[in-house]
Amino acid sequence: QVQLEEFGGGLVQAGGSLRLSCAGSGRTFRSFWTMGWFRHAPKKERELVASINYNGEDTYYSVSVKGRFTIFRENAENAVYLQMNSLRSEDAAVYYCNTKPQRSDYWGRGTQVTVPS
User: Fold this and answer.
1) Which of 69, 70, 81, 105 could join 65 via S-S bond, C-beta 3.0 to 4.6 A?
2) pLDDT 10s digit of each residue in the chain, 117 long?
């Protein structure tokens, strides 16, 4: 069984920064998985915002966050991070980590990011 837990959300003013953390655990967790950060805002579909392959050499960013967000990982710690800079009101959402492709049984509770408009 795999557990993914997200940390680091909060309230930040537009233009500010946050760093989200995702901790993976469970005896079947594998550090070689491609991991992604997803977000779900009210009245919107959940979307992939960034992903990273097992060694960090291959990353993906959605158009809306490219140049502002950075995904990185520490395999020794089973951790994946999302550094978010220059936050905008449209970045407000619940952020989740999951494998890519995502697994329905791996969703955690997410972490709320609030950016007042």
Assistant:
1) 69
2) 889 999 999 999 999 999 999 998 886 667 778 999 999 999 999 999 999 999 999 999 999 999 999 999 998 889 999 999 999 999 999 999 999 999 999 999 999 999 998
- Is residue 16 within 8 Å of 29, Cβ to Cβ? no
Q: Which residues contact 63 (CB under 8 A, 6 or more apart)?
A: none
* Contact status, residue 12 vs residue 87, Cβ threshold 8 Å: yes
Rounded-to-integer distance, Cα 74 and Cα 62, Å: 22
Partners of 70 in beta bridges = 83
3-state helix, strand, coil in the chain (%, to 5): 10, 45, 45
Task: Sort 18 into a burial class: Cβ within 10 Å, 0-12 / 13-18 / 19+.
Answer: buried
Q: Which residue is it, tokens 């992903």?
A: 51
